[in-house]
Fold this sequence. Notes:
The chain is α/β, with parallel strands linked by helices. It has two domains: 28-113, Rossmann fold; 139-262, NAD(P)-binding Rossmann-like Domain (Rossmann fold). It has helices at residues 7-27, 43-59, 74-85, 105-111, 123-130, 139-151, 170-179, 194-199, 244-250, 261-281, and strands at residues 3-4, 33-39, 62-68, 92-95, 159-163, 183-187, 203-206, 224-227, 231-232, 238-239, 253-254. It is globular and about 50 Å long. Residues 94-97, 119, 139-140, 168 line the site of guanine (GUN).
Amino acid sequence: MANIIDGKTLAKKFKDRLKDEVTFLKGHGIKPGLAVVLVGDNPASQVYVKAKGKACEEIGVNSFQHTLHKEIAQEELLWQISELNNDSNVHGILVQLPLPDHLNEEVILEAISPEKDIDGFHPLNIGRLVINQPLFQPCTPLGIMKLLEDTGIDISGKEAVVVGRSNIVGKPIALMLLHKNATVTICHSRTQNLEEKIGKADIVIAAIGKPAIIKGNWIKQGAIVIDVGINRLDNGKLVGDVEFEEASKRASFITPVPGGVGPMTIAMLLHNTVEAAKRQSKGLKV
Ligand code: GUN
């Protein structure tokens, strides 16, 4: 049976360390602040935003929540972001995705100052990740790398299969694994013979968003399985993208859903916010 990767416990370790760091910074007159912008009333986004605010509170980071009407004009949202860019109490700015269809996501994300882009979604931060000179890296993939590190396994030379090619998870995690010298295959909705590709993987990163779409018996004996999916079934149960029971009979390590990747995403958001506050207090520019 696989070892269960306990994201909750690892996230707590990070948060405890960050809490001490925030206390230290406050002693030097720096109070890290995170602005979270939610547009509209997407129920999943509301849950995530609430969790982010609570996590800030836990470690002493100031959280500024801005809930905006779902029909807000793009110009108005850009103006709000500009206000936050110029607010010295705000060190990190997060615009919760997805945005309503009438808003241009690329334009909105590019409006956030790269110095405050604790999500790592600004083209400048993405570019820096591509050339392996990262400033702020996206929180979910960064959390996954910490989980992999914690298993003690050497990534170098391993066959890694990433399923999903989103800008938030699939593409950045593929780059991060590549920079650790994994041989990376990115699979997506048009990929043929997914089962065969997964069957060869030493590391599987599932980031699709479809319940149990990756079958447990596809997993190679001894593989590490990281499940990013959080899917709510009709009966209210949360499940990942991987068939957990069957996969855990074959994997050496596997993340549970919930309690795997999710808590680490939030811990990394706090980490990036504290880093942003430290950089801004030193007057560092990108
Ligand atoms: N929506 C889903 N994941 C994320 C994330 O990491 N950041 C933001 N801003 N929106 C998201």
